[in-house]
Design a protein that fits this description.
Length: 279
């Protein structure tokens, strides 16, 4: 039997209760992935994502969507969730780490508490998640053996693939975001390092660096929204917000075997934002 999907197996998406994570979970399901683990702090958001997936894909498939409440800033919570995913699905083929928060403020106006909260989710939390994913992936067989029906060529086979969501602000600066930028730069650096360390075990690790995307994160209050519309969006060559699904599609591509020679990379998905910094 020929596979109908480029993403056979089990996909985990952290931060899938909202925005880019939700869109990524939907994109995996629409690409034919039938086993999805949805992680977030926000259980109501996860339930909505599950409903949206079931609506989009229909009930006549072998779709299995499981919700795991998880606080990525808490190591025990992360271990519990990833252990739960392994127990539920036996494998973990793709992990996309989207959970994130943003607190604005110049360094001299920023509290240590907010600095720590930012790092504990965006950098330390991402590393905790990625470490658990790597532990599971290292211990499992190649996907060409696990899913023979997918007819994955041995050269392109993988044991697993991780996509970490960083940000364009890992590469360039914007006013009022030192703690966020630092955490996202850390996420990119961890990605490169893990990409190198696990290449020989056939685990790929990549990062996506979104530009300015229309999500609840970019809608915190009317004043900030207005600032975003008139500053970063206007210095984006495409002069618009990206859509969560435009980030999601790149995540699904990078996760799957079609991206089999891509590892340790940071992909900008930003309407030309980074390319056009001298704009
Ligand atoms: N929206 C943008 O313009 C933009 C740009 C660049 C990068 N990003 C990054 O993309 C990712 C997704 O952002 P989004 O725009 O979808 O925002 P969002 O606010 O819509 O989604 C973030 C999700 O992360 C979850 N989350 C927050 N703290 C958590 C925790 N401790 N444990 C588990 N889950 C937690 C939230 O509950 C939420 O569901 C984030 O990492 C963000 O930094 C967003």
């Amino acid at each position: 039997m020929t596979s109908k999907t480029d993403v056979p197996g089990v996909a985990l998406i952290s931060g899938s209760g909202s925005g880019i994570g939700r869109a990524t979970a939907l994109a995996f399901a629409q690409a034919g992935c039938t086993r999805l683990a949805l992680l977030d702090l926000n259980e109501a958001g996860l339930s909505t994502t599950k409903e949206l997936i079931e609506e989009a894909v229909g009930s006549n498939t072998s779709l299995k969507v499981h919700i795991f409440k998880c606080d990525v800033s808490n190591p025990d919570s992360v271990t519990r969730a990833y252990t739960g995913v392994k127990e539920t699905f036996s494998r973990l083929d793709y992990a996309v780490h989207c959970a994130g928060v943003i607190y604005f403020g110049r360094s001299t106006d920023f509290s240590l508490e907010d600095f720590d909260k930012q790092n504990n989710v965006n950098y330390r939390g991402l590393w905790l998640c990625s470490r658990e994913a790597l532990r599971i992936m290292r211990s499992q067989s190649l996907d060409c053996d696990a899913y023979p029906e997918a007819q994955i060529p041995p050269t392109r086979a993988q044991r697993g693939s991780i996509v970490n969501i960083s940000s364009g602000l890992a590469l360039v600066s914007q006013s009022n975001c030192p703690a966020y930028s630092g955490a996202k730069a850390g996420a990119l650096a961890v990605t490169r390092s893990d990409g190198i360390d696990y290449a020989s075990e056939r685990i790929r690790v990549n990062a996506v660096l979104p530009g300015i995307v229309d999500s609840p994160m970019t809608n915190p209050d009317p004043e900030t929204r207005k600032w975003l519309e008139t500053n970063p969006v206007q210095s984006t060559p495409m002069r618009r917000f990206g859509l969560p699904e435009e980030i999601a599609d790149v995540c699904v591509f990078l996760a799957g075997n079609k991206a089999s020679f891509v590892t340790g990379a940071g992909w900008c998905v930003d309407g030309g934002f980074i390319a056009g910094m001298a704009y």
